[in-house]
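for the recovery benchmark. tokens below, seq after
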């Protein structure tokens, strides 16, 4: 069987015919939030319903943090520190080099956030995160609770000031900047059904804020949850049948086929050419002929 589906012939150059899509860990309930620590040769990821962050290395799996406050998405800032979205305490945190936890955001306009889901850090040090309601709708991925604020996208200035920068999406979820940070992409998992399917929005960045939001690409079959960009600006998105590669112009270039529903992905490995894919009960990995945008 082939692990890849080529739609645009250029995608044939992005993948390696003899590099398999491998399941490197399994036995979880619902995994998300992969983040690569090259300095440790380790991948951290969240097993959300089991309230833990796990660590994968070539030696195997160990527990990084448990309980994790039902952590979901993670990233690293430009100083290499772990930034985490926590459903359970409805906040975004930074893990300092000494292991202490700093709260980046836990409310907006005097109300509690919903359940921060995914996070990125810009070159200016601002922390951007999405806040859909998935972690408070049931007790499966957090604690069931009333929603106090809309499902917004927030930007937290390095000074700590929080601002709602996108307020009109249904359920903003994964997010990513283009390599030059002139475009912000945000996936919307709130639109589940035709004729209003799941899509990725693109925004022009102007004076550090997103403007001119428009539908960039519709994911079919859906599950536009996690997204990442490679070094030349192709977008790699979760989908129901695997990972889709989308050109900077918005066209589907090809697919990496994965046998479980994919949630999130990240680049890592020795040359930032290894794609790690969290998919329902398992983590998959594949070496590509592409390099991801990944800091540090
Ligand atoms: Mg997500």
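predicted aa per position
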């Amino acid at each position: 069987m082939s692990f890849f589906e080529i739609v645009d012939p250029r995608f044939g150059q992005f993948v390696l015919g003899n590099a398999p899509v491998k399941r490197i860990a399994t036995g979880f309930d619902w995994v998300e939030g992969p983040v690569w620590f090259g300095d440790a040769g380790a991948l951290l990821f969240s097993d959300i319903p089991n309230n833990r962050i796990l660590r994968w290395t070539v030696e195997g799996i160990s527990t990084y943090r448990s309980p994790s406050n039902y952590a979901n998405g993670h990233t690293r800032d430009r100083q290499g520190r772990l930034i985490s979205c926590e459903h359970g305490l409805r906040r975004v945190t930074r893990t300092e080099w000494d292991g202490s936890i700093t709260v980046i955001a836990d409310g907006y306009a005097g109300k509690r956030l919903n359940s921060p889901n995914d996070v990125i850090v810009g070159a200016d040090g601002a922390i951007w995160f999405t806040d859909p309601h998935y972690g408070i709708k049931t007790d499966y991925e957090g604690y069931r609770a009333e929603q106090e604020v809309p499902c917004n996208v927030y930007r937290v200035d390095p000074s700590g000031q929080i601002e709602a920068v996108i307020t009109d999406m249904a359920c903003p979820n994964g997010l990513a900047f283009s390599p030059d940070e002139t475009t912000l992409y945000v996936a919307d998992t709130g639109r589940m059904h035709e004729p209003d399917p799941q899509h990725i929005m693109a925004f022009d960045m102007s004076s550090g804020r997103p403007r001119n939001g428009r539908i960039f690409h519709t994911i079919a079959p859906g599950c536009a949850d996690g997204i990442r960009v490679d070094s030349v600006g192709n977008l790699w998105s979760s989908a129901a049948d695997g990972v889709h590669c989308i050109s900077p112009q918005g066209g589907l270039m090809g697919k990496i086929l994965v046998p479980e529903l994919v949630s999130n992905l990240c680049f890592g490995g020795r040359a930032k050419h290894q794609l790690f894919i969290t998919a329902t009960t398992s983590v998959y990995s594949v070496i590509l002929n592409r390099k991801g945008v990944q800091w540090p």
